[in-house]
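no rush on this but wanted to send it before i forget. theres a chain ive been looking at and ive put its sequence and its fold in token form underneath. please have a look and point out which stretches look like helix strand or loop to you. thanks a lot i owe you, the record is right below:
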Amino acid sequence: MVTSKMDELVLVRAAHIGLPRHAMVAKGVPDWLFARSALGFIERHEAEVDQRYLQLCPYVVVFGPKSLEVLIYRRNGSEGRLHGKWSCGIGGHIHQRDLESDPVGAFYRGMDREISEEIGSDCLEGRMTQLGIVFDPTNPVGRVHLGVVFSLKLSDYPILPMGSEIHGARWVPLQDAKRISTSEPCESWMKLVLNQLL
């Protein structure tokens, strides 16, 4: 029986994949990322500290109906090390409950679940594009997470406020989001994705 979020089983992949020791983003999604033989589920409290594994997490940058307008917000979720920091990514951990037949399908079902929980199920009708990956081993959070980056273009604005893990959500021009990512406290993935992938 799961008693806390840290007891949940989350999707991981083996970390021995030759990633650099510095922060990086890469366009496209490499073939090795979803190699079924390297995927599995372990308890989150273990995954948060065991560097033999990388937690695979979707990181969905949401664009509004206006050209080059992006959703940013302050983190308020279960990851205390990110509380109050700006983010431009919707997503989170993929849980074993997202699993129906295979871990790859669980990733995409989990991503849809996270989008529905955080910004509403209507947003699933937007145009989704897979952009690449983001990894930052320079901090304790980044060392055990690997982000799969997507953009989501919406035709209508979702209703604010959004899910409980999102605080102070707002729509800003992409250039303003880039400025915020270099001048205010934000998660490292936001800085990397906005300034190197978009």
